[in-house]
Amino acid sequence: MSKVDMEVQLGPLKLKNPVLTMSGTFGFGREHGQYYDLSTLGGVIVKAITAEPRVGNPPPRIAETAGGILNAIGLQNPGVEAAIADELPPLQDLRRQGTLVIGNVSGYSFDDYTLVTKKISDSGLVDAVELNISCPNVKGGGLTFGTHPETVYKLVSTVRTVCAVPLIVKLSPNVTDIKEIASSATEGGADIISLINTITAMVIDAKTRRPILGNITGGLSGPAVKPVALRMVHEVSQAVEIPLIGIGGIVAGVDAAEFLLAGATAVGVGTANLMHPLAALNIVQELQWFLEDEGIGAVAEIIGGLILP
Amino acid sequence: MSKVDMEVQLGPLKLKNPVLTMSGTFGFGREHGQYYDLSTLGGVIVKAITAEPRVGNPPPRIAETAGGILNAIGLQNPGVEAAIADELPPLQDLRRQGTLVIGNVSGYSFDDYTLVTKKISDSGLVDAVELNISCPNVKGGGLTFGTHPETVYKLVSTVRTVCAVPLIVKLSPNVTDIKEIASSATEGGADIISLINTITAMVIDAKTRRPILGNITGGLSGPAVKPVALRMVHEVSQAVEIPLIGIGGIVAGVDAAEFLLAGATAVGVGTANLMHPLAALNIVQELQWFLEDEGIGAVAEIIGGLILP
Amino acid sequence: MLEEKAIKPLQASIVRNQRLAVDVYHLILAMPEIAVKARPGQFVMLKVAAGLEPILRRPFSVHRLNRETGAVEIIYQKVGKGTAILANRKPGEEIEVLGPLGTGFCVGHARHIGLVGGGMGIAPLLAVAEQAVGEGKEVVIFLGAITKDYLLARTEFSKLGPLFVVTDDGSAGEKAVVSKPLAEYLQGHSLDLLLACGPIPMLKALAAIAEAQRIKAQLSLEQNMACGIGACLGCVVPVKADTPAGFSYKRVCHDGPVFWADEVLFELPAKMEKQGGCGLE
Amino acid sequence: MLEEKAIKPLQASIVRNQRLAVDVYHLILAMPEIAVKARPGQFVMLKVAAGLEPILRRPFSVHRLNRETGAVEIIYQKVGKGTAILANRKPGEEIEVLGPLGTGFCVGHARHIGLVGGGMGIAPLLAVAEQAVGEGKEVVIFLGAITKDYLLARTEFSKLGPLFVVTDDGSAGEKAVVSKPLAEYLQGHSLDLLLACGPIPMLKALAAIAEAQRIKAQLSLEQNMACGIGACLGCVVPVKADTPAGFSYKRVCHDGPVFWADEVLFELPAKMEKQGGCGLE
Ligand SMILES: Cc1cc2nc3c(=O)[nH]c(=O)nc-3n(C[C@H](O)[C@H](O)[C@H](O)COP(=O)(O)OP(=O)(O)OC[C@H]3O[C@@H](n4cnc5c(N)ncnc54)[C@H](O)[C@@H]3O)c2cc1C
Ligand SMILES: Cc1cc2nc3c(=O)[nH]c(=O)nc-3n(C[C@H](O)[C@H](O)[C@H](O)COP(=O)(O)OP(=O)(O)OC[C@H]3O[C@@H](n4cnc5c(N)ncnc54)[C@H](O)[C@@H]3O)c2cc1C
Ligand SMILES: Cc1cc2nc3c(=O)[nH]c(=O)nc-3n(C[C@H](O)[C@H](O)[C@H](O)COP(=O)(O)O)c2cc1C
Ligand SMILES: Cc1cc2nc3c(=O)[nH]c(=O)nc-3n(C[C@H](O)[C@H](O)[C@H](O)COP(=O)(O)O)c2cc1C
Ligand code: FES
Ligand code: FES
What we know:
Radius of gyration of chain A: 18 Å
Helix content of chain A: 25-40%
Strand order of the largest sheet of chain A: 3-4-7-8-9-10-15-16
Low-confidence stretches of chain C: 273-281
Oligomer: heterotetramer
Mean pLDDT of chain C: 92
Helix content of chain C: 10-25%
Order of helices and strands of chain C: EEHEEEEHEEHEHEEHEHEEEE
Radius of gyration of chain C: 19 Å
Strand content of chain C: 25-35%
Structural class of chain C: alpha/beta
Distance between the termini of chain A: 36 Å
Largest sheet of chain C: 7 strands, antiparallel
Order of helices and strands of chain A: EEEHEEEHHEHEHEHEEEEEHEHEHH
Structural class of chain A: alpha/beta
Number of strands of chain A: 16
Largest interface: A-C, 63 and 45 residues
Bound molecules: flavin-adenine dinucleotide, flavin mononucleotide, FE2/S2 (inorganic) cluster
Low-confidence stretches of chain A: none
Shape of chain A: globular
């Protein structure tokens, strides 16, 4: 173990280290749990949970791009009831060891979000709820919730009233002004903001003349998006007071350090978990080593430490 | 030479082939002109031209990322007078050979744009003007012109009145709804839309704790952005009637084919010109070979040919 | 699967990476941990090159296992970027391997087993054929390919049991699809299990034959993958299930790649063709 | 430059890629076209690996030229991703090279030339030293490095003229910066040209000495590059100019890498520190 103090205070949440595994890339922890002891992580954010079970999108759901991947899973999940009955209980042992378990809530209407949030927050099985607002607002004409400040404010403030645990709002990068959205989420009562979700994209097979993904479009993630995510995290950190979880293309300890410097209090590891089953574990270790090499005693010291000309 | 008919009709412009070199990655053609005969290209879009000379941003101006690069040149250019006097005349021989020469106009106010557009369109030295609307509207509070439908409509319709040659409007990808912006540009009187410009991003050196670029942020380009560009080109092609120039991460002939399938009538090669001086030439050739292999007689046949499930 | 602890990604050294046909290569990796643990029908994911190009590992079925030497053999076709990079790797070099992954073929108490392979789908059948014969079972092998050059491991198979081959160009055996010799064989003989791997149309024809003849059949399927360990739900195929949707998706990497023929859905229920929904997760 | 037709990128074969110090390597490339055309002080851009990782070529100065054998020598330090990949390339392999690029050193009619190198900045000086001596000129060499292991090509230099070395740790020569022996030398002798390459603080000190002693000096500068051919304006450094801004930017790749010391601006005029403007081109 390292002499570096890795603990961070993420708003109301205390993390043993700033590394969280991100929703959709870690299932409910089962698979990666076969490869290493998950209590080495700051926290685990589980796969999206919706009101009803969802079969998800037709395959192919994954395509590879330069420096990244596209995915269009379509929020396949067993629904909130089954999640509470079968998926979340096995993770409780982790919580006893001080690793946070966070639910990722997705929906297609205000009712979906409030229902799911209330159920999992009342279940007592999660330390916090992360709202994935990158979904189409079916009643609202299919536009993504997360792209309109008004809607974000309304959604977050509504969900806030039924959420007994800390509320994390996860922002979509597909917007003109991420600061504006972040402010709306903050005013709506978010305790923490996480960003970024994936960037809407498309891949085409020129020979078949067809989109590669069954869903036509998908979300771009991985190292390719890191510079965009860093820019957005930095912008938002200067626009709101609440703490941030920086996400986007983190595959090494030094990437995590860059997000902390840019103003994030914790970091989320997504695609890297798919590239290597031990990725998140290695990132915790590499971050410690980086800090030791730099002679830094506590990871908290570098948060927001970016030096501007 | 290939049996494939490579000619395309880009709105009012006839191109000998659909490959254009993009602004800022090809100077005024001098440097690449030493490496190959530029008349092999469909057209050349020159470096941004502004009303006054600009020294540009402090270095470093270039940084590398996974699958892409960041740049923050800061529109360094000699100003419209010098451009007309020294930079555009040497390119006239190309025009006589049927390769288009297109001016890229950038500005910080409506007056800048109208002044520069009028001067270069009146100069008779360019076949078309491309409006780079990804610049901050200084009088408009520094927000980027290209991110607000109203502003885009006003700017394009204003410039349109002084532009004697076909007008191309180049969209910024840093928006919530690219279709909306494209429609505003079309209503404003654009003949052609080109997209995408770069995605605002940032890179940090964790050891020095400083941004790598002198300008702090820069624009992401290259293969990393291709899937985002393809998605936007496809969206816009379904939203507007006018033809599109598809740009973003094209480094091979098959990439160009993907953009044509997605709905672009021509393609723009940017970063690839920096990776290999002969890139654009090779892309023209590879595109021909691809079409031959697919047994396609004319490149125009695949435009918008994407097959959706 | 959940009980047994997974093998962490490990560096295997390349013993051999030799071309067999225009675009087909034979890769032999020295990795004892995996050789002892792997079962026929399972697969491994190879990080064809260090770094970020490509980002994802590539899945390849186990072609042959040698528990004594610790060698795991793979046969792969050069079809794109990743396999092109793999084809350039040299013996002696290290390559990162994740595996063994997925379910294997399940031979159980079957005595007379038909093995049906099409194209690269021939590759995974040798390991299971050798195992079955080793266990004293009888195997009959049906192989189909575009030309005779693609009738992989033909000699090895011929040593294990009756071998029927067909090609698209007639360069070996009859000019036919592989389901034909199988159907003909079944007119005079009986089999109590079919194990198959190959293109979807072939598997579909096979599933039909199996159903008609009431023979249990296992099919090895493919799908684009990311994690390879069941975490991302990226590699799914539709299977019959009485869900509201009338079916459900299973993961090729974790629930497969081997599935029972009678559970596989070769077409999605029309209404599901495009569910739309949240492409952006 | 504009007149002469440029050499297209070509494949050179690696003759040698050998480690000289902990993180310093000596690369010899066989590329006759470039060897005959290159001038000391120019550079080449290497595509360290095929594909997209990394995207950009890496610039390296010509360390030594052998027009007879067609060999071009480079000395490089492993500092990041690209040079790490380069360090793993093996003799016999091909590597894509763009060059020769940029201006070279311009010795002209100078008779007594001082060569001043710091760290990796020592590398480009050997070629010009050998050329100058070949032309019957006198050279005096001043080299500085962190330790004696980094005093590159020390033996070769010692054959060409008086050699003064210093190190940060005193492991060779005096524990001092390289401007010290130069200043001392100039008290007793005169030089009519200084050619230098090294870290900015060293070049700055040197420019001051040159100005005080009225000696013309040429400095080889570095900057992050993209195209390497002058097209992208990515690699600029500020130089004195009577523009409205009080200075202008020149391209290291095209107008440099060698600049006259008296034109180089080591600091930007305060007000220009951040012009902001259109970061997004
Ligand atoms: C369980 C399983 C076992 C396999 N066994 C073999 C084998 O034994 N021999 C063999 O030659 N091939 C096998 N394949 C197919 C092989 O994985 C692909 O041909 C390979 O991934 C193509 O990679 P590429 O980069 O060369 O092609 P590209 O087309 O450049 O790959 C682009 C992306 O598509 C994915 N992809 C493309 N085709 C396939 C495919 N058919 N299946 C899964 N992902 C794909 C790649 O993984 C990559 O993410 C198997 C696939 C699976 C799922
Ligand atoms: C004209 C010129 C001549 C050079 N000659 C030599 C030489 O003879 N020997 C030697 O060891 N080095 C030399 N360098 C520096 C060398 O190019 C860099 O060390 C190298 O590009 C670093 O690449 P990397 O991927 O290992 O480092 P990384 O830090 O991973 O590179 C990241 C990015 O920064 C750029 N970069 C980083 N440092 C430099 C730098 N100092 N100059 C330019 N770009 C940089 C890289 O090109 C790349 O785009 C020279 C640079 C220039 C401009
Ligand atoms: C396969 C896959 C599935 C994902 N599923 C979800 C999800 O269900 N809910 C969510 O909020 N984000 C989801 N994401 C987004 C990630 O949580 C993360 O925000 C994004 O991938 C950017 O981080 P990365 O570059 O490290 O992957 C998913 C990403 C991937 C790659
Ligand atoms: C170094 C550099 C300079 C650029 N300068 C300009 C510019 O002056 N005007 C402009 O409209 N776009 C400019 N761009 C954007 C490109 O024209 C192009 O739209 C973008 O790079 C995406 O294409 P690519 O991925 O092929 O590079 C520049 C891009 C780069 C990399
Ligand atoms: S590849 Fe991730 S679940 Fe199968
Ligand atoms: S690197 Fe492009 S101008 Fe110098």
